[in-house]
Amino acid sequence: MTDASFTELVRLRDDEASDAPAVTVDSFADQSNAGAVRIEPGDDARLLLPHLDHVTRVEVNFPSFTDGRGYSAAQILREAGYTGEVRAVGDVAVDQLGYMRRCGFDAFQPEVPMNEADVEAAFTRWENVYQKTSDGRVPIWALRHGEADG
């Protein structure tokens, strides 16, 4: 039996994100000095767009792995130019990591720790991608047509 290591927080960034507690989107208006915001299912990520310049971390809660609304929240933030950390929290499964990364998530804090080898495999599984999204990878169609910047 091998000694597997498990991780509770996976970060794809080198910089340090704020460890401050995240406030809800609703309470953010009253605490505009908050550096971290938590988006719950049903919250509108667009409410944060005017304030992105001073938010260092956005947590997106996944109460159930079947609730995909958080993917849209991450994509909205990245398309608006947000460069801070976007962290998926909650019921995050290892088989979702690659898709979440494509939508703009760069940190993952699952309820249940993940095996580090499984996490690495999830991020390296597919060499090529088909859609243009927020993670900077060039879609295969763009590579085929010599459009290296997608």
TrEMBL record:
This is Oxidoreductase. InterPro entries: UCP030820.
